[in-house]
């Protein structure tokens, strides 16, 4: 793929509302708004938040509230969820929340849906209560949401007010092949979490494309890949900045989650060889380097996998460096 072809690829942001060591969630939200405003000015298409719970370093638990905050502070960029975890919510509540958002910010709200709880089992039990032991029907809940959003539901006993009759695009999110089959069956766009679950990426998008059934929502398969991005003027500086995300993923695999730590000059004192290999496997789809390096690698990635859209997530401790990375990454698509 010619690097110039990147100009035809939409690019977006996934924000986990990461809390920095020495900072608060309030600081995080302020930084998120600044990043969203910059992303809008730079031509990013979407700005999404992911629902997580009981994680000290992730402040996006009240996902719909954050979406409203960012949409209210911007003018045109699409804002949405990547995703709302349906086991945690009744479809009616999701329809009402996103119907409210779409009424406030018309034609700007996306609803990405996941089937995982977005947390550990103890916290999932705290969220779901007695429903914890009920069989969760993810496909059925998507059907309920689509019905609640439809104008034809206006005679039903249960209605989403607001929400009914509104055009709110639904995406299926996934990190496995099950989600790919579901997205294909329902004819919905598919967003894959390749930023932390690279193992099934190629298989999942192949299943999605091969089994896709066109629908009134989407005529042809549409794949968005989420990847890790750390851009800087030089490869060496990007590598240094990327030690923050490496330390974060090290916390994931060791079960010692912490707030996002500052960059360090050398990771050797933080991990052993097995831990290093595990972190690097999880970060397989990462684009770390100068704009020139990233442009070459990203062009090859898109040529190989044929994705329709790229969503970047960047765990960079220094906020100014993060804004600069966001700017450099946008320049790759120019």
From TrEMBL:
One cellular-component annotation, GO: cytosol
SUPFAM superfamilies: Bacterial luciferase-like
Residues covered by the Luciferase-like domain: 11-300
InterPro entries linked to this entry: Bact_Lucif_Oxidored, CmoO-like, Luciferase-like_dom, Luciferase-like_sf
Gene3D superfamilies hit by this protein: Luciferase-like domain
GO molecular function: oxidoreductase activity, acting on paired donors, with incorporation or reduction of molecular oxygen
Family recorded in the similarity comment: To bacterial alkanal monooxygenase alpha and beta chains.
Protein name (database record): Luciferase-like monooxygenase
């Amino acid at each position: 793929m010619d690097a110039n072809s990147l100009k035809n690829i939409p690019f977006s942001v996934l924000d986990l509302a990461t809390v920095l060591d020495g900072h608060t969630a309030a600081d995080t939200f302020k930084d998120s708004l600044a990043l969203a405003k910059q992303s809008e000015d730079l031509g990013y298409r979407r700005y999404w938040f992911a629902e997580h719970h009981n994680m000290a370093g992730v402040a996006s638990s009240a996902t719909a509230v954050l979406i409203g905050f960012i949409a209210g502070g911007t003018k045109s960029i699409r804002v949405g969820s990547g995703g709302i975890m349906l086991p945690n919510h009744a479809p009616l509540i999701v329809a009402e929340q996103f119907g409210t958002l779409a009424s406030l910010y018309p034609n700007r709200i996306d609803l990405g849906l996941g089937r995982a709880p977005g947390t550990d089992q103890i916290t999932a039990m705290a969220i779901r209560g007695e429903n914890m032991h009920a069989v969760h029907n993810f496909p059925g809940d998507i059907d309920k949401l689509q019905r609640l959003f439809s104008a034809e539901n206006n005679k039903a006993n249960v209605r989403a007010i607001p929400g009914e009759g509104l055009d709110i695009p639904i995406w299926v999110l996934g990190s496995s092949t099950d989600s790919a089959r579901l997205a294909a069956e329902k004819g919905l766009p598919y967003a894959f979490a390749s930023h932390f679950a690279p193992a099934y990426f190629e298989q999942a998008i192949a299943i999605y494309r091969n089994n896709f059934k066109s629908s009134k929502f989407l005529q042809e398969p549409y794949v968005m890949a989420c990847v890790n991005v750390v851009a800087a003027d030089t490869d060496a500086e990007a590598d240094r900045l990327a030690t923050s995300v490496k330390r974060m993923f090290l916390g994931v695999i060791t079960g010692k989650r912490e707030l996002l730590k500052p960059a360090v000059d050398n990771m050797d004192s933080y991990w052993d060889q097995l831990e290093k290999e595990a972190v690097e496997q999880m970060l397989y789809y990462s684009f770390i380097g100068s704009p020139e390096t990233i442009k070459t690698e990203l062009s090859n990635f898109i040529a190989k996998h044929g994705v329709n859209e790229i969503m970047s997530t960047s765990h960079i401790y220094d906020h100014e460096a993060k804004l600069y990375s966001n700017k450099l990454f946008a320049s790759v698509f120019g």
